[in-house]
Amino acid sequence: MRQFIKRNLAFAKLGIQTNLEYRFNFFIDAAVQPAITGMIEIFLWLALFSAVKSDTLNGFSKESYLAYVIWSSFIGRVAISWMYEHLMMEEIETGSINAIILRPMTFKSVARLQTGSIFLLHIGSAVRGFVFQIAYGFKSLSSGNSIGILLFDFYPCDELSNGVFCVFLKSRAFIHVGEKLYDLYYVGRIVPTGFAARILEKLVSEITIFIRCLYSRGLHHRTCRYRHGDARIYQHDDRSDRGTNYFIPSVEKRFRELQWHRCLESTSDFFQYC
Amino acid sequence: MSNAIEVKNLNRVYYSYQKSVGLMSSIQGLWNRRHIEKAALSDINLTIPAGQVIGLVGSNGAGKTTLIKTLSGLIPATSGDVKVLGYNPFERKNEFLRDISVLLGQKNQLWWDIAPVDSYQLLMNIYDLDVNKTQKKVKELADILNCTHVLETQLRRLSLGERMKMEIIGSLLHDPKILFLDEPTIGLDIVAQTSIRNFLSDYVKEKKPTIILTSHYMDDISKLADRLVIISKGKIFYDGSIDKFTQKSVQKKRLKVIFESPVKENVHISEDINLIAGAKALDLEVEPSRIADTITRISQKEAIQDIYTEEIDFEETIREFLKRE
pLDDT tens digits for B243-257? Predict the structure, then answer.
């Protein structure tokens, strides 16, 4: 167990070190981008509430909407795993995957590194969310706003601590939990119709995944592989420095089942959104 | 001496497809592709005892890197039996991966954006190495390779030679029993090449690991390898000692003739020897039995100042062999 934690902490540290190497990029991603987008959205909601002259919209208070604005970019970006696929593609195309799969560890460890890196990129959003939630959460608590209590209680204490825990210890679970939370809290229950853009974004994302999965039934796709499979079941062949992927026959069947399961999930989500 | 590597009837086939030029053929390729197969390795049989250094030589596309990738577990064999340290390499068991190290000269094994010392720290954790001992080892190896000053510089900022030295240190930290070195000196200047070659030579004497070394520089092979394996078009053409190969292959000697004055006009000496006007010397490769006769013929036409004969070296022998192949 000691070795397990030591190794994973080392990976997380490496991810953070890698991100800090490019200071300007880190500054933009971690501070400027969340600050600007957050401010724009906050002002929009403030303007909207000011215009309607009401304390609630569709049953949700201003604080609840603002809480959503503050956290959605952070949770949304961390929860959706598009960045992992990019990293994975890069590893395959450059052949750097060779250096990873020939070490005595699973590919999951590398996912932790990547999760650690991405988490750091979004730490600006997280801090912003914390500050906001603490300020408005207490306010909501004192005014008896149940949604506010829920948000205050849920995001900082559960989601983020869970996130931090998972970044270091179980990134796969984190991705999964992140996805489910995204579905449940933003799309399914608490997001009113005003959030069409978010729904649309999610819809497009799901359709893309669905199409990819359909396509990959025969040919296999990185997205699906990464989401469901232990990366050690695939192999890389960079005969011409480009990736050509294939499966080990014994696990291919199981993997396809997982892929197909994902396709069905996507289909169900798709119709649910429709 | 037990065998570190045993390969029986190993075949590796790559599947690809051909596409004609143009957009239409790309569109057509959506439903109709001309698939092709290329045998990268054909019926390879190889037994390597522990502690031996193998020089794997072949032209581009001969199958050297494919063989290394198969032996290290990066790619599976299409058919055949491969055992490395008693393991099936493609299963990539942690016990097996702990005992091997792969250094691909054209690919980075360390992390690009961070300093080598940070990468080494991660490797210490991956291989569960003792921190103090490993740090001491890094320092020792860096001292020998004369690269202590770049240990804390980001890998991306290092020169190719420095980077390769860092990669070598990284690949040796866990004392691998088998070392796969795929062109470790490629692209390096002569000083860096010699430095790495000398380092590896000393390392081999001290630690006695099993090494599979591929290189296009024959000096690497002749200095480091105990045994030569020549591979061409996926097949092993020669497997034996370097000396035997040279003796077997070299049936000619180099003859250098220096004239007293430049040749005045084109002179025909024999079927394969012609003197060109203005030439001050003549460089030939002739069979030993024909040396005396050749010198006599030349001296009849031109005044000779000096004559040298020498053995054709290993590199040229290999070059000739590969050219023929």
Answer: 887 776 666 778 888
- Continuous segment of H or E residues that includes residue B196: helix B190-207
Residues 173-192 of A with CB under 8 A from B: none
Residues in chain B with CB shorter than 8 Å from the CB of A18 are: 111, 113-114
Residue A78 has pLDDT above 80, yes or no: no
CA distance A97 to chain B (A): 9
Distance, in angstroms, between A4 CA and closest chain B CA? 9
Q: Do the Cβ atoms of B102 and A102 come closer than 8 Å? A: yes
Tokens at residue B257, please? Answer: 């003739």
Enter the ipTM: 0.74
CATH 3.40.50.720 fits B3-7+47-248, yes or no: no
- Greater confidence (A187 vs B227) lies with B227
pLDDT tops 70 at residue B16: yes
Q: Find the closest chain A residue to B15 by CA distance.
A: A244
Residue extents of the structural domains in chain B: 3-7+47-248, 251-324
pTM, rounded to two decimals = 0.63
| A182: Cβ contacts below 8 Å, ≥ 6 apart | A75, A76, A79, A80, A202
What is the per-residue pLDDT across A112-132, written as a single tens digit (0 to 9) for each? 555 555 555 555 555 555 555
What pLDDT, on the 0 to 100 scale, is given for residue B59?
82
- Kindly state the average pLDDT of the residues A76-99: 63
Phi then psi for residue B210, to 5 deg, are -85, 130
- Kindly report the backbone phi and psi dihedral angles of residue B38, in degrees, each rounded to the nearest multiple of 5, phi listed first: -130, 120
Contact B126 A14 (CB under 8 A): no
Q: Is A261 on the interface with B (CB under 8 A)?
A: no
Contact B107 A22 (CB under 8 A): no
Interface of B with A (CB under 8 A): 14, 40, 66, 72-76, 90, 92, 94-95, 97-98, 100, 102, 104, 107-114, 118-119, 121-123, 125-128, 154
Contact B126 A18 (CB under 8 A): no
Q: Coil, helix or strand for A182? A: helix
Inter-chain CB proximity B74 and A102 less than 8 Å? yes
Nearest to A49 by CA among A153, A189, A194: A194
For B232, B308, B312, the CA distances from B49, given in Å and listed in that order, are 23, 41, 30
Cα–Cα distance for residue pair B209/B174, rounded to 1 Å: 12
Q: What is the pLDDT of residue A10?
A: 75
Higher per-residue pLDDT: B122 or A163: B122
Between helix A82-94 and helix A107-121 the angle, nearest 10°, is: 120
Domain residue ranges of chain A, discontinuous segments joined by +: 2-191, 195-274
- Asked if A158 and A73 touch (Cβ cutoff 8 Å), the reply is no
